[in-house]
Amino acid sequence: MATIHDVAQDAGVSPTTVSRYLNNRIELPPATAARIDAAIKKLDYRPNLLAKRLSTGKTEAVGLVTPEIREPFFAELASAFEDEADHHGYTVFMSSTRSDRKREIASLERLQDGHVDGLLMMTNTPDDGTLAGLIGERRNVVIVDEDIPGVSVPRLFVENSEGAYQATRHLIEAGHRRIAYLGGPQGLLTVNERREGFLMAMNEAGIAVRPEYVAMGSFAPELARAATVRFLELPLPPTAIFASSDYLAIGAVTGLRDANVSVPDEVSLIGFDDIAFSTLLTPPLSAVRQPVEQLGRQGFLTLLALLNGETPPLLTRLPVELIRRQSVAAPTSKDFRA
Q1: 59-158+291-320 has CATH 3.60.10.10 classification
Q2: Which of 58, 106, 225, 242 is 20 to 30 A off residue 8, Cα-Cα?
Q3: Domain 4-47, CATH among 3.30.750.24, 2.30.300.10, 3.30.70.100, 1.10.260.40
Q4: Segment 147-164, tens digit of pLDDT
């Protein structure tokens, strides 16, 4: 098996130069870099990661904990995180917890056991203090998307309240006054902030929030579908629905379709996330767009700053954008139940 000394001899440089080049710690003239690359390929050189770990105390690997890799939002964020990590020479070990607290705990313990140098943590279930306690005992952890109260580590969120405010204002400006709201499980940062934005826009417009128009408790499309059906069965049903995640919007679309209610001719609909399938619905879904790729890339760069001994901001907020499509229109006086 070729060694770093073999590569250095073939390329006509010192082993230290090869080592620094492979670790992105030196910028070489193109001709020198090309000679090293050619020697690595010719000799089929593979770095001895175990020796490197023993000598530096680092694995040059980071962990990414995600609630669900199959959902487009988390998949896109994970892909961006991995791309940025690869660009900086880091390997990513990914853990999909399926919102299981035991899996989340196991992922944090891997960091303590030295399997990775740092961890980007995402959860979508309210913490009972368990995660906060574990994170408080560890270094090099970054939290993205949802908060874990009680910890003092860098966190990256989007402007949830502002996005919800914009979405609700869009419905109000289209002429709607009977606006229903679909929310996730209470106790989560995104759920609380998006509800605040909704209430802010409604109060600002002088529109009373009807309790029967509000359904919260889960991000599951099935529950959103059932809630939408209940909205439509009210004596005075809503003319618009704000679904505070695109998965809730899918459930609302299903409920409206089951009731043979047309979007936006009879009920307008807007979501939050703007993941890929939003444009594939009929009609295409208006939504608040989250900067998902930026969350992933910035998440890694924040973690990298910690690994380099820097002190990144404890809180970073990324902006959102209202995307207007064909699922919102002015309300009609027609009663869709007639």
Answers
A1: no
A2: 58
A3: 1.10.260.40
A4: 999 999 999 999 999 999
